[in-house]
Amino acid sequence: EKIQKKIELLKEQKASLINNCVTKGLDPSVEMKYSGVEWIGDIPKHWEVTRLKFHGEIISGLSFNKDDIVDESEGTLVLRSSNVQNGKVNFSNNVWVRTKIPHRLFVQKGDILICSANGSRNLIGKNCILNEESLGMTWGVFMSVFRSHHPDFFYWVLNSQVFKSQSGLYLTSTINQLTAFTLKNLMVPFVLDKDEQRKIVDYLTQETQLIDSLMKKEERRLSILKEYRQSLISSVVTGKVKVTEDMI
User: Fold this and answer.
1) Which residues neighbour 203 within 8 Å (Cβ) at sequence distance 6 or greater?
2) Which of 6, 42, 171, 224 has a CA positioned 20 to 30 A from the CA of residue 242?
3) Residue-level pLDDT at 176
4) In Å, how far are 59, 119, 147 from 131, measured between CA atoms?
5) pLDDT per 10-residue tile (average), the chain, 248 residues
6) What is the DSSP letter of 122?
7) Beta-strand (E) ranges in 69-226?
8) What torsion do the CA atoms of 126, 127, 133, 137 make, to the nearest 10 degrees?
9) Would you say 154 and 148 are in contact if contact means Cβ atoms under 8 Å apart?
C-alpha cells in the first residue's frame, strides 16, 4: 500500500509539473496576466490563449473494410489506439491494409496521433508524437492527427490538465468521441518564441523521464512483492510451508 501510494504521488507530481510548465513557463519572475480561461488561470504576459485550429490541421483517419486487411508484406500499417502506449508509438499489435490512401493520410514527422473514439472513455485523448519510424504508415478512422509547426510544445499541452479540463466537451452521458471540430476548437496556452518553447520541451522531457524511471522502479518493487505474497499464500495453503505456533 505504501508503494502504491508513492506511485500515485509520482503521477500527481508529473501531472502538476507538465501543467505548470505549459501554463506558466520556466521563469518564476516573469510578469503574469489572467488568461481569461478558468482552467488555464494566469499565464506569462507575453503568452496568449488560442485555439488549436490556428496552429495546425486536424486530420481524421482512414476508413477501411475487413476485406482490405492483408499480411505485413502486402500492405500499409494502420496506426490504431493499441499502437499508442504510455505516450509513445508501439508496434506490438499491428494491422496492415491494401487500399487507396490519400497522400495527406500518410504520416509526416512530428504528427501528433490522438485517439478520438474508443469503447473505453479513459482512452479518449491519449496521444503520441510520430517520428521517422512511422513514416509511410497511416492511421485508422478512430484516430486523428494534429499536424502543426509546433508539435513538441503542443504534445505537452495535450498531455496537461489544460486538455483534460475540457473533457466535458467530448465525454458526456451520450457522447464518447473527440471530433475534429471539438479538437480544433480546444482553448490552449501558447508562446510563439520557439527558443522558449524548446527550453520548456527539453525541461519537461528530462524531468518526466526521471519521474517515469522512479515509477517503473516502484512498479517493479510492487510486482515482486505481489508475487511473493501470492507465493507465500500458496505455499502455506498447500502445506509446502508448515505453520508452527512460534511463527504466529
Assistant:
1) 21, 26
2) 224
3) 77
4) 17, 27, 12
5) 96 96 96 94 96 96 94 93 93 94 96 90 91 96 96 96 83 77 93 97 97 96 94 88 72
6) G
7) 69-70, 76-79, 84-85, 88-89, 96-97, 112-115, 127-129, 138-139, 143-148, 187-190
8) 80
9) yes
